[in-house]
Amino acid sequence: MPDPGQPPVGGAADRVVAAAVELVHQRGLKVGLDGISLEEAIAASGVSRATAYRRWPNRSDFLRHVLLRVVHDARLEPESDADIAAVRDRIATSRDSLVTEQGRRTLVVESLRITTESDFRRLAGSRRWRDHLALRATCSSLPAGDLRDAVAAALHASERAFTEHRARVYSRLPGVLGYRLVPWLDASSGYTLMAATTGALMVGLVGRAAIVPTGPAVQMRAFGSTERSPWTTQSYAITSAVLSFLEPDPDVVWDSARVDQTIALSYDLEAEARALRHDH
After folding, report:
1. What is the pTM of this model?
2. How far apart are CA 161 and CA 258, in angstroms?
3. I need a surface site. Which of 38, 137, 216, 222 has the fewest CB within 10 A?
């Protein structure tokens, strides 16, 4: 018999779980999980009732498989390929800006604003990601026992993978842009803390957007940038958080060779971020 703690893959059981998850994505996840029906999933999947009930003699096992699949499907992708390319394009086309301190600051700030806003819009518009957030809220209301423990463990593993992925990308970014961690942080934990902080902010902002519509952007020159740009709550909050972890590295000499290196490193960063994302 398959491990009851893991979602089934392939065959009739997989079709029933897939049908149930699709119904969850269509309707949204409800506290109490009353909207997850084995009978409806059986009907939608085309699997016989006898086969389904042999696999899941009780609803708790069925719910476990459905909820673990909801967690897995969300995947908490830290950034899209377009987000990654946007950072690279901004750096690669900013040779003149890179030679001055002010130009570099504007480049850093504007890159963070653009990618943060793109990241937020993508996640806020994802039905699967919203279901993942709803499951986080629902998990604490589940009765104590195997089901809640399994869902909590899956959520924890998913978010740990998200944090570790983004920490690896963050650890490369300062070197590309001539920044470093602020002195009271060290590389062994600083980037992980940075990733966990921005991840928690993003989760809260996406959850808030489902209830409170995002307000209009405010035009301003923020965080030392010379560009007057539209800043939203989410882009301002997350950019502020990232910049609280970093400062310009005074040991970097910005000559033409360093500018060439930065542009080359931006392509390396893009390739690494894409590889990490698709391995995630």
Report:
1. 0.77
2. 33
3. 216
Q: Using DSSP, how many helices (H) and how many strands (E) does the chain show?
A: 12, 4
- The residue from 23, 53, 73 where one domain ends is 73
CA distances from 56 to 2, 25, 153, 197, 238 (A): 11, 22, 21, 39, 44
Look at residue 4 and tell me if it is in a domain. Answer: no
Same domain, yes or no, for 58 and 140?
no
Q: Are 48 and 55 in contact (CB under 8 A)?
A: no
The CA-atom distances, in angstroms, between 177 and each of 78, 145, 265, 277 are 20, 48, 9, 21
Q: What are the pLDDT digits (tens) for 183-222?
A: 999 988 999 999 999 989 988 888 888 777 777 899 999 9
Using alpha carbons, select from 39, 280, 32, 71 the residue that is nearest to residue 161.
280
Cβ 280 vs Cβ 84: under 8 Å: no
For residue 6, the SS3 value is coil
Question: 242 and 212 share a domain?
Answer: yes
